[in-house]
Amino acid sequence: MIDNIIRVLEARYACRMERLTGGYTNLTYRMAGAEPPLVAKIANLSNDDTLNEVQVMRLVQGSCDTPAVHEVSETDGMRIIIMDCMQGGNAQSILDAGDWTRAERIYCSMGQLLAAQIHSRPYQPQGTEIRLSNRSALSQVIRTLEFVPAPLGRQSLQMLSAAEAGELPWVLTHGDYGVHNLLCESDGHLHVLDWEWAEWGSPLNDVAWVCWFTKHHYPGQSGMLNTAFIRGYLSVTPLSFTPQQMKAASLYRVWNILHRLRIAPKEVQREWVRRLEWTLGEDFAELHGTS
């Protein structure tokens, strides 16, 4: 099925399909030789995330550095999205290479971009089909996931409940914002990829997820990087939050991932239960916002 789609695309666009990794989801290909440079994302029709992604990318086109969608088609039970191929390398590779001076600059730019180009768009209840935050219904998810130990669920519910009163006004959120979904050009210019998990929700969900990702994967440099990220964000727009709200927003993202892992392999489920436990025990006190 996929091979047939690839042959059709190669013939139609006179290109060679090259599989992409790093910042792109599975079944994403560079259409080498196509003019202008293009990328094809191929997903099952049952994957509603791709429909959500298309809606968001069309909404932000012209106001955010993200690929333009050229065509959306369906064939053989699959959805094909043709979009711009952006320049640059995956920003996470800069952290993995240990270039912390450049990484700090990128984190400051990440904060500025998130505030200016994404969170600057307030919630629009009509006219779009973009996913809504399910935070209010998360308690049901927490109570019904059998592979997560009940004590971790109860502790999560307590922390989420305690932070609910301070939820911020909804804006457009990326849903998986971070260096792993950014392309960085040599001059530091950033492009945002992979909007599948985007939704209308609290801006703190994105802010917390960047800090969570960095604390978990780069603990030795997370203080420096997250400080640069928050400083960049606050240079564009004010954002007031407490460490408790930061932890609650991180838990929101972790539980949404756990919910998606209901039929995942046991080892994947165990790893994310471990990450849940880590999040519950982690101290977010060094992160703070200002109004």
TrEMBL record:
Alphabetized InterPro entries for the sequence: AGP_Transferase, Aminoglycoside_PTrfase, Kinase-like_dom_sf
Pfam families linked: APH
Ranges where the Aminoglycoside phosphotransferase domain occurs: 18-241
SUPFAM superfamilies recorded: Protein kinase-like (PK-like)
Top-rank lineage group of the source organism: Bacteria
PANTHER family for the chain: AMINOGLYCOSIDE PHOSPHOTRANSFERASE-RELATED-RELATED
Stated name of the protein: Aminoglycoside phosphotransferase family protein
Organism from which the protein derives: Paenibacillus tritici
